[in-house]
Amino acid sequence: MYPDSRVTIETPEQITMELALAGIGSRFLALALDTVIQGVLYVALILLFVWLGPKLQVGWLPDKWAVAILILLVFCVYWGYFAAFEILWHGQTPGKRVAGIRVVKDSGRPITVVEGIGRNVMRAVDGQFWYLVAVISVAISRQNKRLGDYVAGTIVVHDKPTAEVKPDWSFMRPAQVGLQSELANITERDLVVIETFLHRKLDLDPMVRFNTAIQLTQMVQRKTGLERPPDQSDEDFLHIIAVQVRGHARLRT
């Protein structure tokens, strides 16, 4: 595994994110926990059918069909467990949640159904020789990827909340930095709200995204007195404002 264990991603909004990659240890812990849960589910299914066995043999369900249903359910648990949880839990399984890791796209965005299914279909190959294939792949990959991650275009990262970035307003001197006095009315909280919107806008419903951009633009115009150029979108206007304010502040985490 490469020593830096980090990946830097630049979003379409030109916001740089640094994500800590999950290594073999944390991924193995998550896999071990998920395997235990799968084992419990297998046992529960078997015990359920043993208990229901006499009740099923009433003529409406032949023995062979009962066995076939049991095999199908076991198959679904084995192949669908990881994909279902990662899709519904936004890249996490119970094991990953305990281990504090999450699957995301190479772009840092949440995975979709396609990525969730694609990376787990390859588990049939990654799981060969007690996951030796996956371990080798992760060990030689710069982004700690197993084969399923290459196929789906995903990475596994530590699910730690991003440290809040705050501008140090005490450092700002209008005479020194030439910051427009109008922009000085943009508060620290305003900047956080604007950048949070720009960072997450692609994940929003189009109508929510559109209305939020309008509301934030109106807020900026009200506080600064600046007008958005007619040929500029609300999102571009907000991006320029954020860059100008951030560019004249010393950031601290």
What does the model show?
With 253 residues, the chain is mainly α. The chain has two domains: 6-158, no CATH class; 166-252, no CATH class. It is 58% helix and 10% strand. The protein has helices at residues 24-56, 63-88, 94-99, 113-121, 123-126, 128-140, 147-152, 174-177, 188-200, 206-224, 234-247, and strands spanning 6-10, 16-20, 101-105, 154-158, 166-168, 250-252.
Please give a handful of descriptors for the protein shown:
11 helices; two-stranded antiparallel sheet; 2 domains; 58% helix; single chain; elongated; 253 residues; two-stranded antiparallel ribbon; mainly alpha
Give a topology summary.
Elements: E1 6-10, E2 16-20, H1 24-56, H2 63-88, H3 94-99, E3 101-105, H4 113-121, H5 123-126, H6 128-140, H7 147-152, E4 154-158, E5 166-168, H8 174-177, H9 188-200, H10 206-224, H11 234-247, E6 250-252
Antiparallel strand pairs: 1-2, 3-4, 5-6
State the total count of DSSP E strands.
6
Structural class comes to mainly alpha
Separate helix tally:
11
Rg: 25 Å
Percent of residues in β-strands: 5-15%
- H/E topology pattern: EEHHHEHHHHEEHHHHE
What is shown here, in short?
The protein is mostly helical and 253 residues long. Helix content is 58%, strand content 10%.
